TrEMBL record:
It holds the Pfam family Transket_pyr. It comes from the Bacteria. InterPro entries: PDH/Transketolase, THDP-binding, Transketo_C/PFOR_II, Transketolase-like_Pyr-bd. The lineage of its organism: Bacteria, Bacillati, Actinomycetota, Actinomycetes, Kitasatosporales. It comes from Streptomyces carminius. Residues 2-168 form the Transketolase-like pyrimidine-binding domain. This is Transketolase. GO terms for molecular function: magnesium ion binding. Signal peptide: none annotated.
Length: 317
């Protein structure tokens, strides 16, 4: 089966044939996937070389000219390195475009810290008006990419990853969906993108509700409030956020959504400590406590669970 990046290249190449408004800007990364499309549309597939600030500047200029620009490279080079250009060339200029990143937080650990970007979503969250998609499967990536391309002049970030769940979930580009329902008032775990399978394994046998989302901005506060509506007064609402980037990135949004009720929020994700050894993706997952065993230990130490023998069985959706 293809990867998210391969799906991105194939879907976008087809859409370039169909939509004369679409344009792709690359910075040497991902050029092989667009070689044929560049031959057909040399004026709308542009490779600026290893110049990430120029990548964003060209994208902003294309947007001002009325095109729908799609900018692609590793997350560390797409969000972190040219951040000022994103702030000015899209935000201040009032233009829209689609950023499509690769690499996730540590998909290519052999690349070292220059290719790791666990803080990308948190950094983009300091800007106004960005939609952020974090697909958990190539099929979800395709659906969200099509949604992003058709989103008028909105600013959209699509965070692709080599990590994936075993099967896709229906995604619409907005909102949370319940994939597992505990009893009324049970702790709620929000799983983002490719971490859903690990979360479901971690909470197996526990009385917990699991919400899934591949779209983290806008944050679906209404769905979270509905999920904790029957939280017991003794503990208040207990919410665990499991995100594949910097831990606590969505804690503020969750706190604002639950400001009217007593609540506790635990943000799990990539820890701030820098891992100086390259290692493997699996070793990074374990080091950050995002493997199923670690997640279970961290979730059960935080939330109040009814013993399994006394709890109504959880239902998967």
């Amino acid at each position: 089966m293809d990867t998210m990046r391969e799906r991105f290249a194939s879907v976008t190449s087809r859409l370039l044939d169909e939509d004369p408004r679409l344009a792709v800007v690359l910075a040497d990364i991902g050029t092989d996937g667009f070689r044929q499309a560049a031959g057909r549309h040399p004026d709308r597939v542009v490779n600026v070389g290893i110049r990430e600030q120029l990548l964003v500047g060209v994208g902003g200029g294309l947007a001002l000219a009325g095109l729908r620009p799609v900018l692609h490279t590793f997350a560390s080079f797409l969000v972190e390195r040219p951040f000022e250009q994103l702030k000015l060339d899209f935000g201040y200029q009032g233009t829209g475009g689609v950023l499509v990143s690769a690499g996730g937080s540590y998909d290519w650990p052999a690349g070292g810290f220059t290719h790791l970007a666990p803080g990308d979503v948190a950094l983009l969250d300091t800007l106004d008006g960005w939609t952020v998609h974090v697909p958990g499967h190539p099929d979800e990536a395709e659906a969200l990419l099509r949604h992003a391309y058709a989103a008028g002049d909105e600013k959209v970030y699509v965070r692709l990853s080599a990590q994936r769940n075993a099967r896709p979930r229906p995604v619409s580009g907005e909102g949370f969906s319940a994939v597992r329902r505990g009893r009324a008032g049970a702790p709620v775990v929000v799983a983002v993108g490719p971490l859903l399978d690990a979360v479901l394994t971690a909470v197996e046998g526990l009385d917990a509700t699991v919400l899934y989302t591949a779209t983290v901005r806008p944050f679906d506060g209404a769905a979270l409030r509905a999920a904790v509506a029957d939280a017991p007064a003794a503990t208040g609402a207990e919410v665990v956020l499991v995100e594949p980037y910097l831990a606590g990135t969505s804690a503020r949004a969750a706190g604002e959504a639950l400001s009217h009720v007593p609540h506790r929020v635990l943000g799990l994700g990539v820890r701030r400590a820098e891992l100086r050894r390259y290692g493997t993706v699996g070793e990074h997952l374990a080091a950050h406590g995002l493997d199923p065993r670690s997640l279970r230990a961290r979730i059960t130490s935080f939330a109040s669970f009814t013993p399994a023998s006394a709890a109504a069985p959880a239902r998967r959706s």
